[in-house]
């Protein structure tokens, strides 16, 4: 039944029910939808490093998934709402419950986009112009520095959402001096095909059926660029979803809530596969 529901993931059919992934009968080592917090108080704390605010979500040392992930840090690259909405911190907390020490750099230096983009006076074009890679890259570099220096990290994965999805690819490439070992991007925006081509590490994507920033043609172009690039990749398309479903969904919409949970499990399984020794399907 479990294998059956996982295979349905790839068909894009509507499946309503509990998302179960990564268990393989080892109950002590399970990742399932119950570890995802959609609402509530974030549990991590914010630190300052090199003038960058960084939200840190630590795994429970007693969690059997924590020890095999020692030395790994997830650098969570957020959407434009950043630390201004609880959902990003809650997802970082959820990654910590999957055993991953997770940091979320404030990419917007205390001034993220308002949670409602229609807020009068907010100019998205101007906001994006003010947060070009030349501004964002050094902030991400600070997060890598913090992870190396303070958390003893030696291996990195980058879950990226929307705006951060592009940057998840950039840190897989020779464009930057810091490199992640594996990335996951949910509904990336502004991601250039040249950036996909420059990357050279495994990358997984979660994409939305109805995404004004990544429509069907753009998604197909991305798939072609991934296939041509030659590194391991995975592209999942979730029916009934809108842009941003990986972070924020109407919780009374079972199809989108399920998709958010599955996209989270997809990211965890992808990171496990390439970073954790002894994981089924591990690359080395
Ligand atoms: C940190 O910010 C202060 C005040 O804005 C500035 O003077 C200093 O140069 C900054 N340091 C770094 C490392 O960017
Ligand atoms: C929004 O910002 C862009 C780029 O800075 C500018 O060209 C445009 O006029 C602004 N729009 C409004 C409505 O202020
Ligand atoms: C990092 O390593 C140093 C030196 O071995 C150790 O003192 C420190 O507790 C470690 N920090 C973490 C967060 O593991």
UniProtKB/TrEMBL annotation:
Q: What is this protein called?
A: Dienelactone hydrolase family-domain-containing protein
Q: What is the lineage of its organism?
A: Eukaryota, Fungi, Dikarya, Ascomycota, Pezizomycotina
An example of a GO molecular function for this protein is:
hydrolase activity
Q: Where would one find the signal peptide in this protein?
A: 1-19
Task: Keyword check for NADP, yes or no.
Answer: no
Instruction: Tell me where in this chain the Dienelactone hydrolase domain is found.
Output: 68-274
Pfam annotation, one family: DLH
What keywords were assigned to this record? Hydrolase, Signal
Q: Which InterPro entries match?
A: AB_hydrolase_fold, Dienelactn_hydro
């Amino acid at each position: 039944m479990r294998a059956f529901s996982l295979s349905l993931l790839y068909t894009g059919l509507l499946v309503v029910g509990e998302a179960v992934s990564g268990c393989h009968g080892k109950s002590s080592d399970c990742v399932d939808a119950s570890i995802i917090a959609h609402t509530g108080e974030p549990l991590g704390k914010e630190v300052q490093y090199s003038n960058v605010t960084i939200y840190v979500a630590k795994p429970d040392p007693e969690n059997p998934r924590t020890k095999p992930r020692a030395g790994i840090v997830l650098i969570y690259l957020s959407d434009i709402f950043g630390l201004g909405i609880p959902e990003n911190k809650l997802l970082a907390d959820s990654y910590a419950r999957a055993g991953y020490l997770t940091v979320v750099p404030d990419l917007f230096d205390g001034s993220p986009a308002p949670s409602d983009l229609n807020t009068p006076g907010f100019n998205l074009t101007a906001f994006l112009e003010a947060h070009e890679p030349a501004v964002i890259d050094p902030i991400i570099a600070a997060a890598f520095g913090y992870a190396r220096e303070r958390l003893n990290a030696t291996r990195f994965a980058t879950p990226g959402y929307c705006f951060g999805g592009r940057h998840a690819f950039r840190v897989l490439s020779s464009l930057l001096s810091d490199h992640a070992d594996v990335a996951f991007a949910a509904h990336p925006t502004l991601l250039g095909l040249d950036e996909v081509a420059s990357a050279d590490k495994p990358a997984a994507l979660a994409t939305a059926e109805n995404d004004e920033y990544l429509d069907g043609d753009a998604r197909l172009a991305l798939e072609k660029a991934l296939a041509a690039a030659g590194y391991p990749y995975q592209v999942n398309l979730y029916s009934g979803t809108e842009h941003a479903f990986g972070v924020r969904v109407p919780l009374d919409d079972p199809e989108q809530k399920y998709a958010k949970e599955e996209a989270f499990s997809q990211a965890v399984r992808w990171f496990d596969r390439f970073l954790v020794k002894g994981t089924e399907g591990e690359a080395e």
